[in-house]
Every structure is written in structure tokens, then in C-alpha cells.
Model the fold of this input.
Amino acid sequence: MVKVDIPVLDDPSTLDRLKVHRRKPRVNDSWNGLYIFIFILTVIVFTQTLIEFSPILFRLGVIARYTLWLSIFAGLSLHIVRRGVSNVMDGLAPVLAFLTIGMISATLSNEPHEAAQVLTFWILGVLAAITIGAELRSEILLSVLFWTFAFLIVSSVAAALIFPSFGTQIDGRALAGHAWRGLVPNKNGFGYLTAFSAVAFCLMPGRHWALRSFVIVLTIMCAVLSSSQGGLITLAAAFSYLFIVHLIYQIRSSALSRATVLFIIISVAALSVNVLSGYLLELAGRDAGLTGRSVIWPAYFNRALEHWLIGAGPGTFSQASSITADVGASFSKYGEIHTPHNMYIAAFGEVGLLGAISFFGALAYFVFYAPFIGKSRLGYGTGACAFILVIGGLGETREVFGTGISMFLILTFYSSLKSNKRASTSPIDSDVPVIKKTALPVLA
Done:
């Protein structure tokens, strides 16, 4: 005699104790095309694909930006009408303190108009990410992500091989004196793009192993031929992060325990790199930022200290501004210097100590905890994209309040993760009987 579990109706007295959950269906998918369009256009605009290669393409880029802002507004309005503001608030929650301090800093800035403009575009990018993540089903989002970045990588390879004057740039340290830049303005941007492409390809749903392997190999080749040390490091960081998170998922424990393990592993790795970095950089003949520009960090940090509490305002350190113009001019021998080439200094300068704490606190949440909210490719993507930003910001002024691909992808993944989690934990209507399993003996 063996026992099997069969479903039976539960006694009504236990309805408050037992729950059965199901995925809450989307309102409908009739507007998917709009949100897919917004996603693809955002990636193109935020990566500056093609726009700086000719005056005609630049003018088309301006049109694309205006089209994007209008599309974001339309998509957000439609989402709120159909589904309310709960998804928007969920997606904003991790960065809400950062946004609030940024608004205060912009109001008090010496360049309030410029700061407000930077902040407005950043908000639009964030809202685009949140609405796309909330509207598109995860499998659709991951597929669109895959094919968008596959197109960028394959097209960039074609541009570099077939039209080298278009897809490469002169670089004395590169093979044959030319570095690949693909469809984006410079090799460093192209190298950075490969890291996010790797995440997109690794998270591709389904069993398309041959296709996935092909584009991953192309991505690694592009990172190497871009001669971007930062790009290679962020690409390696993305692969390493995804591998470590996957291993940690084998541990049967709570999300907080897994996040703690991940924090310990990354902290030990960071400490090891810090101990060995001096020796390794000396062998490579490079500086801590791999750009030769780490010598400018102290000067920019001292300028940031002048606005230590809530900063000088969005955009004042991550792009050319009157507040840092004299600092950059004093290092003219290194070329045109407009930023500190360090995201951490830029964040401190723009939003001060309070804003920097909220910014890096949000990134820590994305990196360490978000991957374990639920076992999902969306959690993997959230953490990996945040980790790329954390590593990439060491040697470049990546996004603080800039409209860039990093925060856009982080919040797209995160919004989709939270939306799917809410949908999967929505209880069945109270008038539907709750089902439980009971063991009954039956004959073998």
C-alpha cells in the first residue's frame, strides 16, 4: 500500500490559513508593440548608435530623441490608465531617495536650468524602464533584449570588417593601429556595450545553445578588438557575476543569507584585487583607472568637497559645466577633460554625501539582494547590469544622472521582476474554494 496526494476542497475554517496562488494575467498584450518600440529606440539613443558619424545621422538622432521622449510619455500615460501607479512606485522605490536629493540639489545648484534639464531626462529614462518592465511579459522582454543586442553586435562586426573607416578608430595600442568601435562613437563605449550584450545573450530564454554561443563568441571578440581595457574588465565582471550568482542559488537558504554570501565573495575578491593591483598595474605600465587619468581624481574630489552635503547639482560633474571647467582646464595635457573619469567622485560632487549614500545604497541592493528576490533571469539581469555599472564606474564617469544604458537596463529588469513577483503572489478570488493536498492510502 502506498500513499498519493490528491486535491480536495479544504474546510472553510482554514481559508485564512491556507492560500493558493496563481499568476495574475496581464491586462492584455495589445500594446506590446509600443513598449517594444520604446525599448529598442531607447537602447539606440542611449548607446548613441550611429548618431555621430555624419551630420545627416546626427539630425536623425535629434529626431529620434524627441520621438523617444514623446513615446515614453505616451507609454507611461497608457500604463497608468490601464494599470495604475503601483508598478511605477515599486520600480522607483530603490532610487526614490536618490531622486529626491537630486531634485533638492538641482534647485539649489549654481546652474539650476542645466541641472533641471539633466534630471528631467534621467527621470524620463527611468520611467521608460519601469513601464517597459511592467508591461512586457518576461519571455518577450528577454527575447527583445537578445535580438536588439544581437543586431548591434553583428552590425558592429560587419561595420568594422566591411567599412573600417566607419567601424574602427585610430589607436596606437590596438592591433594594426585601429580599434573597433562598431556603431557607437568610440571604442570605450563599444567595449562597455559588450558587457551588457553578454548579459542579454546569457539570459536568452529557450535552448538556443548554438545561436547563443555564436553571439557570445562575437561579443568577446568585439571586446578584445575594441582595445578597451575597461570594456574587457566589465565583460569579465559580468560573466563572473552571473556564474557566482548561479552557484549561490544552489544553496538552500533565504534571500538574505544568499545575499550575504554574495557580499562576502565579492568583498574578498575586491580585497584581493586591491592587494595585487599595485603589482599588476606596475607590470602593465598603467594607472589605477587604466586610462592614465587617475591623477585628476584628487583635484575633482577637492572640488566636490566644496559641495559635500547635497552636491552641486545633477550633471555638474558628469559633463562639462562651469563648476568644474577650471579643474579640467588645468589638466589639458591629458586632452579634453570635462569629468573626473570616476563615477564615485562624480556622484559625490553632484549630490553630495547624502545623495552618494542613497545612490550606492540602491546599487548595493540591486547587486546583492535583487538577484535572490525570486529565482528568475530577471533577478540575474538586475544584479549583473548593476555590477557592470559598479565596476565600470571605477575608471569612467558612467551614469549618475546621465541618460545611459546602465540604469535603464537595471530598472527594466527590476521592474519586470517586481511586476512578475506581484502577479505570481496575487491570491485567488475569495469566492473560489481553496485547494489543499491530503494523503489517502490506495492499493499499489
